[in-house]
Every structure is written in C-alpha cells, then in structure tokens.
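3.2 Worked example (two chains)
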Amino acid sequence: MAGEQALLDGLLEPERLALHYVDGRSRKEWLTILALDQRLGAILRTRREPIMAQVRLAWWREMLERDPMQWPQGEPVLEALREWGDPSGLAALVSGWEALLSEELSSEVIAEFIAGRGAAFAGLARELGVDAIEPARRAAEIWALADLAANISDEAERARVVVYGRDLRVPRLPRALRPLAILAGLGAEALRKGGAPLISGRASALLVLRIGLFGR
C-alpha cells in the first residue's frame, strides 16, 4: 500500500477521477503510467533553469531505455515499472515533455509533445494486451492537447493549441482503456471551451460519470 500511495500522491484531480473506473486487473499499470507522466510534468512545472530540467529528463530517458535490472532501487515509479513487459517505449513520453522546454510553442513543439503521450498510452494498450493501439494513441493526444492548453497563461499560445485540436474526435475505446476514454472526453470538452480546465464544476463530474459507465 505504501508503494501505491507514493504513486497516487502526485496525481491531479482528472487522473484520480479516471482511476475510479479502471479495471481492477490493470490498476497497477494505469497508476504507474499516470504517475510517470505527472512526475515528468512536475519537472517542467518546478524548473528554475531549463538546463537542470533537461538533465532530470535525460535521467528518466536513460533509465527507461536501460534494462530494468540496471535501475536504481527505491524510486517508486521505477519499482512499479519493473513489472512491465517492456517499459522502454515510455521513453517517448520523456521526449514529449522535453519538447516543451523550447522557447517557442510552435506547431512542431505541440506535435512532439502530444506524440510523446500518444506513444506512451499506445504502449500501455500493448502492455494490457488490448487491440486498440491507434485509438489509444489518438485519445491520449486529445487529452495531451487539453492538458497543455489548460496550463498555458499566454492567450495566443493557448489559442494555437486549441486550434490544433479543433477537428480531433475521441475514438471509441475498449473497457480496459476506460480511464483514457474519460481523460480524452474531458479533454475534448475542455478544448471546445477554449482551453478550459479539464475539471470545471458539475458538468465535468457528470461527464466523468457518463463515460465511466458507458464508455462515451
């Protein structure tokens, strides 16, 4: 339980709500990838110097590309990832977050960021043995865009992210990927509102409930 709590501690409200609808058999995998994503995001949110953020992100990339037998002990996310069949694909998530260190939030940077999260959750689908690799990728990219837009203070940059995701539609996902369906659904609605927070009042709670129960 202590290990699970360490993974839960960094999660934000949308991820915590999505976890309520996870298939119990895959809870550990979901909790692990969400904790990794938030750990990487926290490096950017708390950075003082871009170089130090790059160094910390490079450490995570190196670990994920290594044989897990060579990982250091005591890091909760790495300890949980030891149980994955192949965690190396999650290195793309690091590259996605690293792209945001760029001085300009260009279309290329946006594409690289969402591609990183898309690749990671496509990898989760493989890990869970789910035949929905591309739908998982597309859903994660929608969530990534909304997450990015909601955390941008510059109005012009936020508008650029919103326009980027304007024509994207949430694909139908299998039951094993229900948390991702929730996050993508919240993301699509937030983008429709111009980059609003993913959770914003009773309407968001009802949306989570509907997708959690019915998948859409």
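3.2.1 Second chain
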Amino acid sequence: MRYKLFGKSGLRVSELALGTMTFGEEWGWGASKEESKKIFDAYAEAGGNFIDTANRYTEGTAEKFVGEFIAADRDHFVLATKYTLFMRRDDPNFSGNHRKNMVQSLEASLKRLKAEAIDLYWVHAWDYMTPVEEVMRALDDMVRAGKILYVGISDTPAWVVAQANTLAELRGWSRFVGVQLQYSLIERNIERELLPLARETDMAVTAWGALGTGVLTGKYNKDASAEGRAALWGSISEKNLRIAQAVSEIAGQIGRSPAQVALNWVRQQPGVMIPIIGAKKAAQVRDNLACLDFTLSGEQLARLDEVSHIELGFPYDFLTSEGVRDLVFGGTFAQIDNHRN
C-alpha cells in the first residue's frame, strides 16, 4: 500500500479507502460483526489506514464496529464519518446540513466511535435549504473546538462546492479538502464539472460505487434472467453490460478479476483519486486489494475509455470543437504548450 496527500492538506491516506456501509446486518444484506472484523483486518494488514463510515450506516452499527476495531491503535487510522442523513424519522431537525443537526450528529458519532475527534468529517449530501455560510462556519467551529481535523463534502453539485470553498478562503475558515463522489466506468458524469473542479483546486476525490453496483464484476452478463438483471439504481442497461463485457475480457487476458480491472481504471485517473472498497466477505476485500499489484496499460485504459465514453455536452464539447477553437485561437491552438493540462 502506498499513501497520498489528501488534497490540499498534509494528511496522509492510503491509496484505497475501506468503506463500512456493509458493517452490520440491520439493513438485511450486510456482514456480521465477526465477518466485518475479518474485512477490517484484511485491509489493515495490507497497510490500509483510511476508514470511511457514516452516522446512518446500518443505523449506527457501522460506527460502533469501527470504533471497536480501531480502539487498540486509534491514532494510526484516518477516521472519516459523515452527517446529514436522518437519524430520527419525522423530526425535521434530526436531518439536513444545518448547524443543529451537525452538532448533534457529531456528538452522537463520537460516542458510537468512542473517539475524541474525527479526522475527516464529511457533509454527506446537499440539502438545498441550509445557507452555505452556515455550513462552513459551523464546520470551522467544530475544527476550532478540536472535534474534527479536516472537512470534506459528498454528493453535492460543483457550484455549491466552489461557492463553499471560496467563502471559506475569503473568511479564513476551514475549506473542503476532498469530495466523495460516485465514479466508475458506468458512471462518469462527474467528469463534466466536479472532477475538473477537484483537480483545479487540489481536492482529493474518494470514489464510491467504483464497481458500478456490481455490474462491472460481470455477474449480470453471466445471468441473463430478468431477476438477475433487476435494475440497480438504474445501472443495468445494454451499454453498461457492454462495458462490463470489455472489463471481463481485459481481466481474462491479464489473469485478473474484473473487479480489480474496474478499480484500477478509477485508481489510474488523474488527480488524487482514491477508490472506496467495500465488501460483505473478507475474500471480496482481499480480491479488491489485489488491484494494487498491477496497473492497466495505456492500450487497456484507452479501450475502456472508448467503450464507456460520455458526451460532456454544452459548453464543454462546444468549446473543444475544431471550429470554435479556430475562432478562439486563430489557428494557433496546436502551437501553444499549455502546462496546465
């Protein structure tokens, strides 16, 4: 395992993060405590130090398990958790991005985790109600109080992230050092705005869903039944199955699993890119960890890029078209060495 600086910070995190949404069986499909510990141990033994959880995962059980698992060497691990999602249904102040929910969520997470502070605290999702200045000031207050060390934001539009960090820098508050986003060969929409924003402003990207809700493992290509191809968050489509087939073919050629190939495509994207791996069994996480043993060739990356290509749309495709470039640069575009690209 190698380590990366987490965006515009000095924090060192492992090149794969361990997701813990599967820790606990309250949602009907997770791992038992015993199996969760095996998953955690396999990751830690490989050198992993970056643990990603959330207050809502398995009704709080995931945080409790994580707190127990890291207790023997708490300061070794980079502990990340999140707030926003509801913890008490039908109570409007037990959800959302606002200060009251942030404070009570943080205190509850600290108790479940048996920790004095959170290394990285994520805004889990944007609620479109709380003013951005309230969120950023409240997060900064928690940093100054010693409850959290760094802040990040997940599942939020690029314009909100840009506004938040601009405001934080202007007022001397803690800025977001990372964004957590859905990203895989079958979900590349963040390439339009969120990824360019992250790279331009030196934010790390932790990518969830790197296996495309299981589609990129190839299991839905093997099972052609209606039940086997049941829609998973809209991820089953003929295009996505073609992408999964290409992943499986490359995996077969190099003697690797499709999951490892899919993870490496994400891992090898530019910028600080950290896939989140999760599993219900220790054997699955060990297979995922083996992606660190190799890299995809330029030819293999190009094939995967081609089969999964998306149109960026307006204004991106417009601005990079030959006609517009000629109008903007007067025929000199190819003569300019742009060190920012």
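3.3 Remarks
The two ends are 28 Å apart (CA to CA).
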